[in-house]
Structure formats: structure tokens, C-alpha cells
Amino acid sequence: MYHFHKDRKEVTIDHYNTPTPWMNYLSNGTFHTMISQAGGGVAFYRSPQIWRINHYRFFHLPTDRSGFYTYIKDNQDIWCPTSEPCKLKPDQWKAAHGMGYTRYEASKNGLEVTATYMVGKYENALLWDLKLKSDEDKQITVFPYVELGMMEFMRELQWQCYNKHQLSAYNLEDILIYRYGVEDQPKPKETPLVYFACDTEISGFDCDRDEFIGSYRSEENPIRVEENACSNSTLYGGDPCFAFQLTVDLKAGEEKEIHIFLGTAMTEEEILASVKNCRQKNFISKSMEALKQDWDEFLEKFQCELPDKEAETMINIWNPYQMERNFQFSRNISYYATGTFRGVGVRDTAQDILAMIPFDTKRAKDKLNLLFTQQYQDGHCNHYFFPTEGWEPVKRIHSDNHLWLVMDVYHIVMEEGKLDYLFTELPYYDGGENGTVWGHIKRSIAFTKKHLGEKGFPLMLSSDWNDMLYKVCREGKGESIWTSMQFGTVLNMMSQIAELMGEEASEYNRTYEEQKQLINTVAWDGQWFRRCITDEGTFIGSEAEEQAKIWLNTQSWAVISGMGDPAKQVQAMDSVRKYLNTEFGIKKIHPAMKDYPSKEDPLTYYNKGCGENGSVFCHANTWAIIAECMLGRSDLAYEYYHQLLPMVVQSRAGEYRYKAEPYVYASNIFGPESDKFGLANVSWLTGTAAWMYLAATQYLLGVKPRWEGLEIAPCIPKDWENIRIERVFRGCKYHITIKNRDKKVFIEHIEGRKEFSVEV
Ligand code: IFM
């Protein structure tokens, strides 16, 4: 079981053995830790590719090891407040994930332990706060432990037999230090030292993993804990770890606090200074208070009171929290993604930015500026890049990447109500003169216009949003009907911005109309819109085909772009309902493919119902919700939204069928053509987070920034009565009540201005 706590913005979990690790991300923007409900996970400094701190063993069971464990030796009993990894479990236990922290509350034999982990803003360190209380006088030994790894995970897999003998871990004034320095490592001067320290006297330590664990043992039963004696090992070559032995005397009823710090700094001097700071009285409470305040301020930008409490929990707390983590980590490292090859994806991050804009426009613009550095003078963009690692970008040209940038700019202009950002000068990836943001997005449009295919739609290039479609365009002739709709959407935006800039918009409008014409003739299949055209000129997504007849995205985007004729928009979305909707969300295609278009060269190797082949693709569901709102079909829009809330689908499918966290969205859920129908896959890092947030706040609740001001045009279920919303917009906080039955919206109060009680 798990429970949400609205007041504390927490979810508590009462069993350690969830079907998959249920993760949280702790981060101050530089030092990061992903931690599971059972204390497993991985810490890294800036990049999990090159500055990973501890071993995370993706392929071993259980799948969340190693982690940030604290062994308690109480007479002969050895257990952990995280429950894992010891076989002996606490008598009482629960974990809580909150905004930037995770807490474990455990007790055994009258000893209560609360272990809170957080990454605060004042030091680049995972802070580990242990509170210990016993109902009788006793002496216990506490062993905090971290298994270190080579900082470059890929190099470790390939070259550890040589490179690991270039590592060292040693004791400096009872602070353990790990130095990673191997031949040919990237950015040696920016590589930090890692430290492990505490604020209590130590009775022993270990830096050599094998000394601490012992042979043919694991973190379940370290020999040094069993023998109650660390070996004071240092390590100059081999497998490093950090372990302390701390002797704690407790009087009955007395509470003692111990703090552990796993951190990074560039030099030994900086480590000494950082540890000194961490050891200051109240450092932990000060860090915790700042963390809470920062999250409260962030989330305060949009709050609502709704009849649907599950939706309210997501909109107010977990959805923006997940969105922020996506914004930071792109699709880099999670329980599913190994953090080895994906840096910042232009497409993915551009979509994350859309939802960050209302929360922190400055942060959104900074990130967007970074994406613009990946745009070429001809308008296209690199696919993903590695600003921290400094590696060569992945330069494949996809038909959608550069168009998402236009959407970001439009949203920024509407949020700010000014055109200033358009004049920001930014470089192009391939040199030449810097261009303004306005100049950059004009080139996005020019690139697509210049790369139209034989039938007039944008060329697919190396695929559009759908990664799987790369096979339809290997000869460079395949065309994307969906990209045409994305193009149409941003042409509309360009046209509006051009008018605001006092420039000619007719060219954008003309191109829009040309594409629209194609959409309603060539792309219309009779009941829905086709998806794309192969190199050979065949339509995919057509009744005439045996498999993958109907695809979700061209139905929803026919509405979003406004390109489908009105009757066709409705018919297309009716077909979505008829062929694609399931009890766990809307499938991406129907029917799922097998050996299509041929056994020798199938479009996908995904099994039926999995991933890109007929799963409920949550990211794409968000666009169907938006489309239904745009059609004004509030009950359908809400049904599609509600059925995808993670706690709703998890409870419908059952915890052990759904498997993933009930508090964050997953990328996809196995579809009905799979025997694992209902299994959630790739949670946390997915474009679903940003778009579900937009769907909920800007379309269902209908609070949308427009040039003229804040539009409030809700599309909510007919039986919802009053809803209340607070939204910070252009420096003022709007307190809004929507009286659904009376079809009235009241702006009750605007903080930061003098107006009150404006009736709309
Ligand atoms: O658009 C992609 C995204 O970049 C990565 N995940 C899958 C999506 C759909 O293919």
C-alpha cells in the first residue's frame, strides 16, 4: 500500500518489495541522487556518463543495487532502516518520497531509526540524517556504506581490468576520499574528488570494498559488520567503497542524531571546507528548510482545488515535480535508462521546456538558448548533444526537432506578454553570424519548407517524433503527415508572432493553407488521417493496410493544428475512441504489427502491444486529451485524462500488473495485444510529464496565457461544480473560481495589483 499526504507533499510506501523500484530524484542542480523506496540507487555529479559516483547494477537482481545503506548492528541482529539489503527486516517500516528528499522510518527490538536523505542547496552532497532512539540503554554499531564505481560506467564495462588500478581511496583526517583519475578520461580538470564524512567520532573505516564485504558475500551480509570491526583499509587500485564504523551509546528514551555526507569537491582543501560547513550545527535542518521553501515557491505558481482529488494531487504536486526532473535530466538516467548514451535530446527537452515556462520563464529561456546552439544556419538541429560531457552531438536530422523550438518561443512570448526574447542573439552550430531568436525560428520554418517530399508533405528525414518510423524513409523519400500537422501548428504561431512584430504573415498563412489542403485530400483515409508515406509511396495508417491501420497522432494533431476540416476532426477523434481507446488508456496504433510490411524487414521488432507497437503511449495520449478539449468534448477529454493518472491506472490494473510508481507518469503501458496489458514501462523520464501538465492546466482547466492576458476557458466535466485555481502570471497571482453550472468565471483577487472581483 501507499498513501499520498497532501500537506507534506509526500507519498509513503509501506512495503519495501514494490514490483519495481519506486524511485525519487534528489538534486540541487549539480549533485544528484536517484533513490528507491528501499535505499538503492545511484548518485552522480553533473553527468551520469562521466561522473557517476556509486555502482548501479542495472542487470542484477534486485535491480536497485547498490545504494546508500546504513547497517545497524544491535547485538547479533544486523538490519537496515532502508529495509534492504539485509535479510533481517525491521519490525515496523515505511518509506516516504517527498519533494527532493526520501525518508525511511524503521524500528526493531525497541530501537527506532529515522533516516532522511536529501541533496541540499548549500553543498554538493547527499546528506544523510540518522535519528536513533532506544527504549532501553544500549550500545549499537552503525555502518554507513557506499559501493563506489568507476565514474565512467561504459569505460568500467570495457576497461576496468586496467583502469581500476588507477583509482585510489584513502583517509584524510577521518574523511574518506575517492580519487578518479584514469588514462584518457574526459575533462580531467573538471572531475571532482568524492568524499564521505560524518559529524561523529569514527571507530573504523574501509575504502576497499572486498575488505568490507568479504569473499562470496554481498551487501546483504558484509563480513566487517558481522565481525563488528572495520579493517581500516585504504585502496590504491581495485574496487573502492566508503564505509564507516560508528559506535553509538543510547540511553533509554534518548534520541541521538548522526549525519553522514557523501559529497564532491575539486580539491582536498575544498573537501575540508565543505565538510566543515556540513558539520555545522543546524546545517541539516537549514538545508531541509531551504529545500521545502524552494519547492513550495515553485509549486505555488499553479494550485487548484478540484472534485477529483487524484487529479488535484497530480496537478498540484507530482506532475510539476516530475516535469522539473525531466527538464533537468532529459531522458538520461532512470531505473530504465542507463545514463550512458543520451545527453540532452533537442526534441525531448524542447517539449519539457513548454511546461517549465509558466513556472520559471528564465530557466526555460536559458535551456532553450542552449538548444538553439544546436541549430544550423539552414534551420535543422542536432538530434541530441552532450553539453556537460563535451562529446560530439548525434547529428541525425529528424523532421520535428527544429519545429519544437518555434513552439517554445511562442509559449514564452505568450507567457511574458512581450517580444523582448525574440531579439536575443544566439550562435548557430555551424558558425556564421549569430542570429536573433526570431531569426532562428524563421530558419526552422525555412528548413521544413525546403524539405518537402514528392506529395508535398515534409520529408520524414531520420524519422519524426515517432522514433520507430526511421525505416519508412531510408532512401530519403518518405514523408510525414504528422510533421505536416506539427508544421501547421507552428506556422500558425509564426503568423501570430509576425503580426505582433509588425511583419508580413501572409507567407506563413499561405504555406499553412497549402499543407491543410493536402491534409484534407491526400492524407484523409475516409475515417481517419493517414500517418505517413514510405519511400515507395505507400501510405501507412490506412484502412487498405492489414496492420497498423490507424495511428493516434495524426488524429489528435489534425485538431491541434486546426488543419482537419471540422467534420473530419470529429470523425477522426471518433475513430480514436472506436479503435484505440482501452481501459488503461489510448493505444498508439491499431492493430499492432507483426511482420509488417514484410517478415524480412518489419517496421518494428517490438512485440505486439509493447512500446512503440500498440502500447498505450502516454505521451501521445496527452495530445488526444488536448484535441478533445479543443473540440469542446469535455467528458471525453476528462475520461482520457483521468484514466491515465498513474494512481488510477495502477489501481485499475493492480500494483503487480502495473508495476511502476503510482505517483509519476510512465512513457507507455503495454497494450491489449500483449499478455502484459497494463504493465507500465519507462516511468519518470518521459515527455508525458510536460504534456499531461499542459493538457490539465491549459486545456481541461483552460488557464492559458495569451498575448492579451490570461484566458480562462475551462473544458471540465459537466458534473463538476466549483473549482478554484491560483495561477501566477506576469508577476501577479490570480485567484480564480469557476462556477461550472452558472458558466461563470470569477477572478476573485489579484495579488500584486489593485483590481478585485473582476467578473468574466
Ligand atoms: O519522441 C520519442 C522520444 O524522443 C523518445 N521516446 C519515444 C518517443 C516516441 O517515439
TrEMBL record:
GO MF annotation terms: carbohydrate binding; glycosyltransferase activity
Domain spans labelled Glycosyl hydrolase 94 catalytic: 295-702
A Pfam family annotated for this UniProt entry: Glyco_hydro_94
This protein's UniProt keywords: Glycosyltransferase, Transferase
GO BP field: carbohydrate metabolic process
Domain Glycosyl hydrolase 94 supersandwich: 12-280
Superkingdom of source: Bacteria
Protein's UniProt name: Glycosyl transferase
Species of provenance: Anaerocolumna chitinilytica
